[in-house]
Amino acid sequence: MAERDDPGIIGRRVQQLRTERGLTQKQLAEPAYTPAYVSTLEAGRVRPSEEALRHIAERLGVAYEELATGRPAHLATDLRLRLTDAQRTLATGEAEIAAEQYTALLAEAQDLGLDAECAAALLGLGECAMDTGDLTTARARFEESEKRLADEPLPVRVPALRGRAVSHYLAGELRYACYLLESAIDELNKGGLHDPDALLLLYAAVIAPYMDMGAHARAAQAAEFALALAPQVGDPALLARMHRSVARTMIAEGRMAEADASLGKAAELYRQLQIRTELANCHWMRGYLYAQNGDLERAESELREAQAMHSAQRAALYTSQVAVELADVLHRRGKSQEAATLLHGVLGDLSSERGAVHSAGAHRLLGIIAEDGRDTETAEEHYVRALSLLERAGAAGDLADLCRLLGDLLRRTGRIDAALDAYRTGLGHRTAPGTTTLGPAPAHPPL
């Protein structure tokens, strides 16, 4: 909410409204205040308390906000309704149209001095930018939203903070994403701000970076806390997000049927809410689950559905990330040429600052395909590029998998010492089902 006008402006407003209504200062003041207080207030010589303004607003028959700011209360209400409309537009996958709506609403909220509504519009713009893969803009919008809410309690700031953390995660900055989310969780819990919605949002968000970093115990604990909080949360979209996130920890624990059921719950909620981007992500996660479990035909079907949905919504980054996982499935089904074509088509859209883990996954797969074609030099180039991306991101499961592949290649080409170095690097990390970006991790090297 914007700050009130200064005492002089409020005083003149009170005097004008009182005169229009034919009230004396005594009639306006009674029974809680004196005529002298009203006279001082109208002269602008005192800053009225909220309690005093609410009393006077009631006597004048106007809303408190209109008396304090000069704006009719319905303007803020109308703006909030239109923010909800923009949110629905984004949910259906029309990120570019939603961004136009949010931009117009932000300008209007700024003109009216409505900080909460400005923050909501900035949050929406951040989500739009993240959906279209513009992570730099997304991060800037989330940061602006947080600044607008600087004086608000932490639970109010959590959605913007979570958005900023996810933008760092998608950029391959896994540790910093975890730091942001963990710091907020600690502050909420230590400060006694037990807000179930805020905590569930944070716990659901931290699972993916934990898993990519190989922090399986922390991911499992976050999933456990999220499931315990679920009965206290009424937002179905938030519950759906939780079910989708928790499924990955179940995959890592080999609980494939439970993971599938959890994804089924999430997908059904997203269908009811008509949130197409998240529904596409459910197909994506289901494809990942089937790929981890070796059910490649179903994996391909789910991933193709996810890719088509994200592509239709112009979610460029997500489309490219799904394509990498689809290429892995195609390769494992013997369609290596199709997989390579798909990878070369999306590799330019991925980088160390944009989908770093999947960029590494693309190079890993191209390395495997090159090895299959006995082009060891090209394979090694791809493996080394993937290794650089993964070391920067700190994606432990993928790093262990890749070190094994690189070590095997080096060993076959007679470079035993270099192979041992690669194996040792890989053995410093744990690979298990659900901890790599792509299909099942290979066995540990034969040392």
TrEMBL record:
InterPro entries, sorted: Cro/C1-type_HTH, Lambda_DNA-bd_dom_sf, TPR-like_helical_dom_sf, TPR_rpt
Domain HTH cro/C1-type: 14-67
Keyword list, A-Z: Coiled coil
Superkingdom assignment: Bacteria
Positions in coiled-coil regions: 289-316
TM regions (residue ranges): none
A GO molecular function held by the record: DNA binding
Gene3D superfamilies, alphabetized: lambda repressor-like DNA-binding domains, Tetratricopeptide repeat domain
Protein's name in the database: Helix-turn-helix domain-containing protein
Organism: Streptomyces liliiviolaceus
